[in-house]
Design brief:
Peripherin/rom-1, transmembrane helix, Tetraspanin_EC2_sf, mainly alpha, 362 residues, Peripherin 2-like a
């Protein structure tokens, strides 16, 4: 029994073909939107690429870019097919191709759904990449004279100013790394020697200038942050406006999560739209094919999603695949020779006439 059978008249088939032709062109636009979203996400990730560890975070934008390009091609072909379905004679040109086209489009719509779900599931990879990348950037913050790292100080400072954050998880992260270059430290100084750890790195309870909160009513305190006696009318436990309290890891995760969720919702809506167009194309295909079987282009015809139930369709397709495998098997039961049961035949030229026997001389 057919699944979701619908009866179509000639005018309804023509109207459905025209609507699907228009919707396929709209789908070309949605393909461009998918491509643009993937490109936008890739650019946003590359903007902070220096602050991220190497992880598979580019899989989502690459997926969206590829799906967007394929969508433009598939829906362009779909528009041509729907346009020709108005004329049954023109439809005959697509008769052998339309079912493989529908199957390919179905798997393509699944790829769109996967892309939407990936936008919601890459949160863990993003957090890990940012945590490791920010830690490395803070360690190399002081290396302004080292090729390949000299840009990190500027990158981190701009990040902390733009996102109003400080450190990886908070300002105290800067207490664990030497963020002032040895070039600007007097290594013979007693204070520097006292504050240096066993590795010779100068650690201090201070932060870079970019951690300063612009809303603070007093001049920013960057150094000796845990020493109340070093500053007038200051208590580091209750001071809230001096530095940005939020870590840059949290700020970046929130930033990218908002972008990913917005893109994921858009891609999900595009998937629903593509699925509805595919459903319409399937109804149009089955309705026009049934008209061809009846032989009367003006008659009514039935359209459906599946000719049989879902279970029967899966079973029949499985049997087809199994039978294809059996056809390739060779019977080698007797001595393993596949030609053992074949009769011996001889070929005697194009006329297939055996030659006359030559007389034997006595």
């Amino acid at each position: 029994m057919a699944v979701l059978r619908v009866k179509f008249t000639k005018s309804q088939r023509d109207k459905l073909a025209q609507i699907l032709w228009l919707l396929n062109w709209v789908s070309v636009v949605t393909g461009i939107i998918l491509f643009s979203l993937g490109l936008f996400l890739k650019v946003e990730i590359n903007k902070k690429g220096e602050l991220m560890a190497e992880r598979e975070i580019h899989a989502v934008p690459n997926m969206l870019i590829a799906v967007g390009l394929i969508a433009c091609v598939i829906n362009f072909i779909g528009g041509k097919i729907c346009y020709d379905c108005v004329d049954t004679n023109k439809f005959l040109r697509w008769k052998l191709m339309i079912l493989p086209y529908i199957i390919c489009t179905f798997f393509f719509t699944l790829c769109i759904l996967v892309g939407a779900l990936m936008c919601y599931t890459m949160h863990g990879q993003l957090e890990e990449a940012l945590a490791l990348g920010l830690s490395d950037a803070m360690r190399f913050y002081k290396d302004t004279d080292t090729p390949g790292r000299c840009f990190l100080k500027r990158t981190v400072d701009l990040l902390q100013i733009q996102f109003q954050c400080c450190g990886n998880k908070g300002p105290r992260d800067w207490f664990q790394v030497q963020w002032i270059s040895n070039r600007y430290l007097d290594m013979s100084s007693r204070e520097v020697r006292l504050r240096s750890n066993v590795e010779g790195k100068y650690l201090m309870d201070g932060v870079p200038f970019s951690c300063c909160n612009v809303n603070s009513p007093r001049p920013c305190i960057q150094y000796q942050l845990t020493n109340n006696s070093a500053h007038f009318n200051y208590n580091y436990k209750t001071e809230e406006l001096n530095l940005w309290k939020r870590g840059c890891h949290q700020a970046l995760v929130e930033h990218y999560t908002h972008i990913l969720h917005s893109i994921g919702l858009t891609v999900l809506l595009i998937w629903l739209f593509e699925l509805s167009v595919l459903t319409g194309v399937r109804y149009l295909q089955t309705a026009v094919e049934n008209v061809l079987r009846q032989g009367d282009p003006e008659s009514e015809s039935d359209g459906w999603l599946l000719e049989n139930s879902f279970v029967e369709t899966v079973r029949s397709n499985f049997n087809i695949i199994k039978n294809l495998g059996k056809c390739n098997q060779i019977d080698t039961a007797v001595n393993g020779d596949p030609n053992i049961d074949r009769p011996c035949t001889a070929h005697y030229g194009p006329d297939n006439v055996p030659p006359k026997e030559m007389p034997v001389a006595s």
